[in-house]
């Protein structure tokens, strides 16, 4: 029971996405080692529920899809989204310098 609670209480916060996904996977594996099987849907839900507001657009796409996303599919989308956010953050100071020059 505590492993399941741990699974659903994980939050990304300031962790890199890869580390957050590994924490979720560790909880999943702990449950599996105790004979508790969680569905792909529950695994995906635990991931999505742990995301901060800046991932709301990804959450909307995944939850609105007619075809359920796999854990691997959601993980790929989230890692790509994090990379894109980092690129945008790194570009902002450059464009701010152009404006102030």
UniProtKB/TrEMBL annotation:
Pfam families: Retrotran_gag_2
Domain of life: Eukaryota
Protein name in the entry: Uncharacterized protein
Organism field: Gossypium raimondii (Peruvian cotton)
